[in-house]
Every structure is written in C-alpha cells, then in structure tokens.
Amino acid sequence: MPTAIAVTSADMALPAQDERTLPAVVLRDVHTRPLEQVLTELQTLIEQHGHVIVVCSRATPLAVRRRLHTLRSLLESDRIALFSPELPPLGLAVLARQLRQLASCDLSPGVLASAGRLLIHYLHSGALLGSVARLDRVPVNLKQHAKSWLPGSQFAVLAHPQPQLVRLGPEAALDGPEFGTWMLVAKGPLQSDWVTASLAPSWKVQGLRETPLPAESPTWWGTGRLIEFCTYLPDLSVLYQLVTSVRRGTCHWCGIDVIGDRCVFCSATPPDQEGPPPARTGHRAIAG
After folding, report:
1. What's the CATH number where 197 sits?
2. Is residue 228 within 8 Å of 12, Cβ to Cβ?
3. What is the pLDDT of residues 194-218, one digit of tens each?
4. Could you tell me if residue 100 is inside a domain?
5. Model confidence at 76, in pLDDT bands (50, 70, 90)?
6. Residue range 40-69: mean pLDDT, rounded
7. Domain that holds residue 216
8. Which residues, other chains included, contact 120 with Cβ-Cβ below 8 Å and sequence gap of 6+?
9. How far apart are CA 66 and CA 35, in angstroms?
10. Bridge partners of 156?
11. How far apart are the C-alpha atoms of 248 and 263, rounded to whole Å?
C-alpha cells in the first residue's frame, strides 16, 4: 500500500486533482476522542500503509498538535512524520494534495515526505484581508496598521514565498510566480473580485478553481473577512520530475531515503550539522 497522507480536518482534504490522486486520511477529533481509540486508528494506518505523513497547520488548535506528539511518542515509531510548514491553511491543503498525487508514484516514504519541503518553494500563498489589525504572520508597519481601522480598507497580502503587504488600490500588485501555475481561491465573507479579476490575470494563471474557506484560515490570518488564494503546479508529471531530479541521500539515523538535509520521519540531520543523535523514544519535534 502507498504511504498514507493524513490531515487533521476534512476541509484540508481537497478534491482530487486527477484520477491518480489518492484520498487523504482525515484524523478527526484527535484531541477529543479517547486516546486509546485514536492510538488504535493510527497504529492500524501504520500497519496498512507502512508509513504515515501527517500534514498539520500551525493554526491547528494546540490541543490537537499536542495530541499528535503524544500519539507518536506512545507508538515510539519513526514511521510517522508530523509535517507542519509555515504556510497558510489553503496553501497547506494544496501541498497535502500534491503529496497525495505523488503518493501514487514509485517514491519511497522518506523521499515523499521530503518532497513537501521541496514543493513548498513552488507555491505562492496569500489572501485579501479586510483588516490587518490582528495579522501577526506577516510584518505590518504602523501606517498599515492604522489604515486597517478605516472603513472599507482592504489589504492584499502574500505570506509565501516572500512576505508582502499592500493596501488595495488601483495600483495594488503582488509579486507572483515566474512559471505557469493554477490558482485555487477560497472565498470568505469579504466582498471583492480583486483576486479573480485582477490578481489572477496579472499572474497569468492557466486555470482557476474555487473551494470553501478552511476553518483555520481566520485564525491564521487574524480576521474572518478574507479571500484566500494559492497558486500551484497541478500536473503530476511536473511534480514527479521536480522530486526525482533532486539528489537523494540516506538518513544516517533511521536509514530511510531522503532528499534535503533533514529526515522528516526521525528529524535527524547529517552528522556534521547536529549534536548527539535523537533518542529513539518517539519524542520528536514537528518537522517543518
């Protein structure tokens, strides 16, 4: 069975991009259900799939993230990767879907888990916000903060790959990708067509789709008045070529194949970049 790609809520499991995209495993209510029940569920996943990659937003409630750490520690398993990059929820959902696409290919679990760190560089993730008064993920200067209190103010914000924030106006623009992408848009209650009518054409996106706003997006962006967007590479063949073109190595600690300088499953880095090897007790920080 292919490596399982898990998410912590159903709205992070985007519809399949193509016929090969594998379904996401939704770990529902991991912090409210009995620990033994969730532990059994995760153990079964490992037995069925060999390895599990859990993609988790940093806006996910702390209780959920703590429970994930507890589960991994109790299982004492290096076959569970907790992947939590600093991406807005919609961008993270897109990344999880790309991993689900790649999970159908002949990639080893370590390479697949490492692919997340590579593919993140090909995402442009941001939002149109009705206020930046509570935005703490992107730098906001005092002038922008003051203007956020003016009625009708809106701000275009790019969170990744490079933070950028501009007040919406006739000349408002954000730095976009320099390669062909599709755009996914999640509309909240904010009324505006700027993303689809202005930003998408200026970025020369090759296709545009809409999806419901993830429940964790208001927490991440500091406001519920928003329209979130993310551009991405949709084609599996392109994703596969990107991943397989990168030199592979072997984790010196757990022995799994990886790309990059850190194993997502055991969090070990090359010997010349780290101190003592991590204890084999399952106690690991979230990789990302």
Report:
1. 3.30.1180
2. no
3. 999 999 999 999 999 999 999 999 9
4. no
5. confident
6. 94
7. 122-235
8. 85, 87, 95, 160
9. 12
10. 128, 166
11. 11
**Upstream peptide bond of 161 is cis (omega within 30 degrees of 0):** yes
User: What is residue 283's predicted lDDT score, i.e. its pLDDT?
Assistant: 40
Domain count within the chain: 1
Q: Does residue 32 fall inside a structural domain?
A: no
Average pLDDT over residues 237-255: 86
- Averaged pLDDT, 174-191: 95
Residue 152's pLDDT is what? Answer: 72
Q: Residue 208: is it exposed, middle or buried by C-beta count within 10 angstroms (0-12/13-18/19+)?
A: middle
Is the residue at 111 inside a domain?
Answer: no
- pLDDT range class, residue 262, cuts 50, 70, 90: confident
Q: Residue 269: exposed, middle, or buried by beta-carbon count in 10 A (0-12, 13-18, 19+)?
A: middle
Question: How high is the mean pLDDT of the chain?
Answer: 88
Residue 43: inside a domain, yes or no? Answer: no
Sequence-distant (6+) residues with CB within 8 A of 284 are 69, 72, 82, 266, 267, 278
Per-residue tokens: 129? 């916000």
Whether residue 149 is predicted with pLDDT greater than 90 in this model: the reply is no
Instruction: For 96-138, write each residue's pLDDT tens digit.
Output: 999 999 999 999 998 999 999 999 999 999 999 998 888 988 8
